[in-house]
Amino acid sequence: MELRHFRYFIAVAQDLHFTRAAARLGISTPTLTRQIQEMEATLGIRLFERNQRSVALTPAGEVLLVEAQAVVAQFEAAQLRAQREARGETGKIHVGYVASAAYSGVLQRQVAAFRKACPDVGLAEIHPAHLKAETLILPEQVSGTLSTAEQGGFVPRLGPQPGGLVAVLALVSLGEGVAIVPNAVAGHISLPSLVYREIAGLAVTSYLSLMSRQYEKAATIRRYIELVSRPAPG
């Protein structure tokens, strides 16, 4: 037997009328009758009691109806899950980000838009302990500082480069020097003796880039990349 036999059987069991069931299925009545007879012959049982005036399920047919409906529903659910996975609408992804993406609100807007478009995709939070076995790549971002110094017409005297933004601000609060940081940071990180001041002159643009594997195979991740790469509204 094939899945279509179950579909045909369910239609007749619901309508208890071969002609109406055949019309709903889009096949002829003789074809439907033949398919039901094939099922009965394969199973070695009668599924329907029928005469010229009525059609009724046998006790065996009633049992099979429950099982057949479950099989068809499971198959259709499996189809839907596979199709949604292929479209990148289910699953789980991990998103790493730099602090400035959160301070500026870019991350929150992107995540909110993605959750609205794909509510069944989980965005997993990574606890620092999860990175214990990983090799960490820590870029030093000094381009903004150098650009500001160039505008001021001087060569900066560079001090320690601790890497993380919070570590940089901690050194400033300890009196080790000054730091050029994104405007979005002001008001988000407060430390003793730390004061933020705007610098006059041309604005220094800081770009946020999305990085992923070149040949990404996961449909869910490709969906996320496609969504957050769209131009922001307005």
TrEMBL record:
<dbReference type="GO" id="GO:0003700">
    <property type="term" value="F:DNA-binding transcription factor activity"/>
</dbReference>
<feature type="domain" description="HTH lysR-type">
    <location>
        <begin position="1"/>
        <end position="58"/>
    </location>
</feature>
<dbReference type="GO" id="GO:0003677">
    <property type="term" value="F:DNA binding"/>
</dbReference>
<dbReference type="InterPro" id="IPR036388">
    <property type="entry name" value="WH-like_DNA-bd_sf"/>
</dbReference>
<dbReference type="InterPro" id="IPR036390">
    <property type="entry name" value="WH_DNA-bd_sf"/>
</dbReference>
<dbReference type="InterPro" id="IPR005119">
    <property type="entry name" value="LysR_subst-bd"/>
</dbReference>
<keyword id="KW-0238">DNA-binding</keyword>
<comment type="similarity">
    <text>Belongs to the LysR transcriptional regulatory family.</text>
</comment>
<dbReference type="Pfam" id="PF03466">
    <property type="entry name" value="LysR_substrate"/>
</dbReference>
<dbReference type="InterPro" id="IPR000847">
    <property type="entry name" value="LysR_HTH_N"/>
</dbReference>
<keyword id="KW-0804">Transcription</keyword>
<dbReference type="Pfam" id="PF00126">
    <property type="entry name" value="HTH_1"/>
</dbReference>
<keyword id="KW-0805">Transcription regulation</keyword>
<protein>
    <submittedName>
        <fullName>LysR family transcriptional regulator</fullName>
    </submittedName>
</protein>
<dbReference type="GO" id="GO:0032993">
    <property type="term" value="C:protein-DNA complex"/>
</dbReference>
